[in-house]
Amino acid sequence: MKAEPKTILRFLLEHYDAIADLYETQSNEGVIAHETLSQIVKKHDSDIKSQLIDYKILSPVNENYEIRTVYYNLIEFILSEFKPMLPETIEKYHTSIAELFRKIRENINGDKVTLSQRLNDLAIEVRSFYEMVERNTMSLLQETRELKANVKKIDYREKIVRASRWIDEYIIPLNKILDINHSASVANKLYEISEYSNKYRLNFDDENARVQFEKLYFQLIQVNDNLLKQSKILTNELLPLIERIRTESIILTGWITFLKNPYKRKVPKLLKRKEVSIYSNDTFFNASEIFEQFKNEVDVYFEEEENDSEKWIFDKQHYTQKLKDNLPVDNFFSWCNKTLKDEYKKVEIEKFFALTQLAFDDDIEREYHEKAQFDKIKIDNLTLTVPKLIINKQHGIS
Fold it and tell me: So what's the pLDDT on residue 376?
């Protein structure tokens, strides 16, 4: 008979110390030996072995045991004892997310129940991906700070090895996963999905799917912002810290080696100390002259500008199809200007430049007039001089 959820939660609470010991044993040894399980149960004076198995907290592995993944992850989260995972483990989300996205696109007009389930599964995979990245960053940061403080009194050579391994095997590969400009990164795939979701959250015949697309779109915007924060932690805090540990350890290792045999090499002459002022003697008077300008205080009022406009995301697939439908195009940049005017009545410079990216797509072949020809396009207060590009049907998009 399956135990009630409250019964299992109460059991975890009452026997938490024993379960924490089992967790520590599995973390250190990989499995929980039969003898170790008996010792832990005896130590806490509680005969709970049968309940651990009945409640499916432990599962047999040959003659040993292991904590089931769901409970192991729960205790790991509570204790915040995350071990850094190799980027290959996180990279698996690229495959699962890309496969779900492919099936959603291919069957967008298929069975609505299946579409709804796939959208839900995709949202779960995105959330799991971000949580794993966040845990990995936290773990690396914690271990790096401990290494910097040398809490465990590690030898300098070992510090060099660990710092180098973390940079080469963890931080640099993880940064590639979070690089939105890298075509094979998970972050780039999430950006592609956000563009697709933005399109269908505004225009889809099934209301339930439309709501799910909207939830997915805003989830991806939040995840993108969070991934940027994690990337900044890796680049601005973690990487310099580990580099500093590695450099300091190399210097100290060399110094210790020298002290062991100081007469083996001739000691170089130390540079003579010389003090140089980094500012002019007239700095005080120049600064006084600047501050005298502000003696007469003037009331200044700041009014926050409300911006209700929604963030615009370039829908590449939509405009590529429009370009196909309008082939041949004798003047590409003029076509971009007209297309935006037809859709938005007003052409904004960032939208114009985003649309012109189509000219640099690998699938597009461009032609120029034998004699260079130029055209002038007015956008807001700017006048752009652009070349005339030709895209014919036979040399257009494949």
Answer: 83
